[in-house]
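Q: Here's a chain of 215 amino acids. Please give me its 3D structure as tokens.
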Amino acid sequence: MIAPEFRAIAANGITLHAAVAGQGPLVVLVHGFPESWAAWRHQSAPIAAVGHTVCAIDCRGYGGSDKPDDIEAFIRRFYYWLAGEAPDGLGNGKPSGASLLDGLPDPWPFPAWMSEDDIAYLANEFRVNGLRGPLNRYRNQHRDVDFLDPSRGATVGQPALDIGGTRDVVLSMLPGFGMIAAMRAVDPAGSPRRGNRCAALLAADAVRMRKYHAI
């Protein structure tokens, strides 16, 4: 058995932890979620034995590889994307495999409503607790359909208040789905300012997930 040599490899401004074995044409082995280089521990030696250099990496953010934590830049770019000052269509049309921040600029100067102190506070909150909890809420959203099914056809009674803006990206985030119309459907009073956007969003989720399950 060919034992791997562990190396630190500089690539694209970060350092990757890698298990390297053998000599010859390079074969890079890339693991999935939530694994590490060790996902390939049984395959590395046989590939090296037939004349290849095998490099099994810890992907960025995993194991011994760098975990960049420029949370301030994440907040600036993400909040700007959601802000009314951002150009129409910013972030739309991303190709398959693009990351959340691909195509989003790091604005300078930042909009007046978000100070450097605001960004520092939010960054510290996420630095302490991470993003896993907030992201898990969306990863688990398909359960909303089952959870809300007993309430199908229910309306949102008054008093209820939704606050939004004419450039609120949430109102246009689902092409072909009328968010205001969905709010009116669950609000007997019919006012787009007095509906409950949460109910509309969950209705939109239900429509989307029904299409997903149909596929």
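Q: Can you summarize the key feature?
A: The two ends are 45 Å apart (CA to CA).
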